[in-house]
Fold this sequence. Notes:
Residues 77-202 form the dUTPase-like domain. Keywords: Hydrolase, Nucleotide metabolism. It comes from Desulfoscipio geothermicus DSM 3669. This is dUTP diphosphatase. The chain is α+β, with helices and mostly antiparallel strands. It has two domains: 3-62; 67-176, Distorted Sandwich (Deoxyuridine 5'-Triphosphate Nucleotidohydrolase, Chain A), CATH 2.70.40. It is built from three helices and ten strands, in the order ααβββββαβββββ. The protein has helices spanning 3-22, 30-62, 127-131, and strands at 67-70, 87-90, 97-99, 104-114, 119-124, 134-135, 139-141, 148-155, 161-163, 168-176. The longest helix is centred in the first third of the chain and has 33 residues, at 30-62. The N and C termini lie far apart (64 Å). 15% of the residues are buried.
Amino acid sequence: MNYRDQINALLDQQDAKGQSKYGHPLEQSTAAITERLYHLAEELVDGLRYTLWVIDKLERRLKMQVQVKLLNPNCRPYRKYIHDAGFDLRANIPAPIKLPPDGRVKIGAGVCMAIPPGYYGDIRGRSSLNVAGILCPGGTVDAGYTGEICVVLVNLSGEPYTVQPYERIAQLTITPIPEVELVEVDELAGSERGNQGFGSTGRV
């Protein structure tokens, strides 16, 4: 019997008692009904608390944990919003680095990670730097690599750019790897596109 049925049954019971004894439904029974409703409310709250506790435990069990070693406490991977895909990586440099036009530089991110097997770290550029012409060509952090993560920046802005210490220079996503088996064949299955490569689809 659910809570609504229990309340309705209690009201019917008290109504019958009040009608037979006093001639008026629910007379002299308000206190008893109120007390019972309080008990039912407490049971409902306890049930909700338990449900939330179970949900929290399930979320913690499903959440993947990645071990992180900080080489510099100022370079903790940063994710502003909980649902953001990537963790921002910072420049682990003691002083500013000037990056000339068309120049490139490799910068340590001040962090090491033990990415679990079946996943890899995908290094991507930050949109704000991309718009400014400071590009990160990307990179892959394999699960077996536990050294310092590094980022490559290329200056295509046409103007000198100065990388500041602990500036957020790239982002890292933890990406699953599907199990793939390469099968050697003499001929590939045909497709509509075939061997049409760069520029074959046009510009518009």
